[in-house]
Amino acid sequence: MITCEFCKKDFSTKGVILSHQKTAKYCLEIQGINIKNNCNFNCDYCDKTFTLKHNMNDHISICKQKKIKETEDNKIKEYDVEIKKIKDEHKKEINNRDNQLQQIKDEYKKEMKQKDNEIKKIKDDYERESKREIDLLNQIISKLEMKLENYEKRLFDMASRPNTTNTNNNKTVVINTNSPLTNEVLRQCANTFQMDHATGINGITKHLASSLEEHITCTDPSRNIFKYTNEKDEEIIDQNLEILLPQYLTAVKDRNDFLYKEVFEYFKKNNVSLNVQTDYS
Question: Residue 37 sits in which domain range?
């Protein structure tokens, strides 16, 4: 047996006693060696220190703090996994909501675009219809202007009505006995304007002659001179009816527009083909 010279403890071999004198804390304290300065290895889990690495490794295998820390680390890992799972689910839910929101936005844009197209179509149809009406009105006016002579010839028929004449110094004076041609007469004339009158120049001529023949006298067929009395009881001498015709056309215009719209509303309501509408126009 070999006895340690510092702590007087017995050991079986010299190697063991040398190891004891280098590592045993109580023996090191007896030797006057600072344990902290002599310890090169620290346990990662507790506050124990070791001079030899293998002693530290032996300690770690049974260190209680290590087991506690490992248990805590495992729990933290489980928590991390659970948190990641919750985050993934939350992120998935957010993505689903974002997709739903984007889908709603896309549907809204699609719907708005469709409505814009419908509004544009309605506007285009309205402008096209308005242009068609204006073109038709211009055609009627053009035909009226081009065939003014036809009006005049038909109006000459009114010259066959008897008129009161007086002879004075070998001069013939024509006395107009017709009732005054007032604004009210023109309004009443417009009320009798019907669809068959609006179908052409002949219809307009027929209506003008029949509705105003009691108010107009043709005094000079060779020069197309007509006479009538206005609502102020003033005698009007009108060659080629240039004064009366614009008043007449203005009076029947609203009635003509009303009949036109009434017919085309019927066409639209009953889905009449465009060809029929065009032929009618």
Answer: 2-61
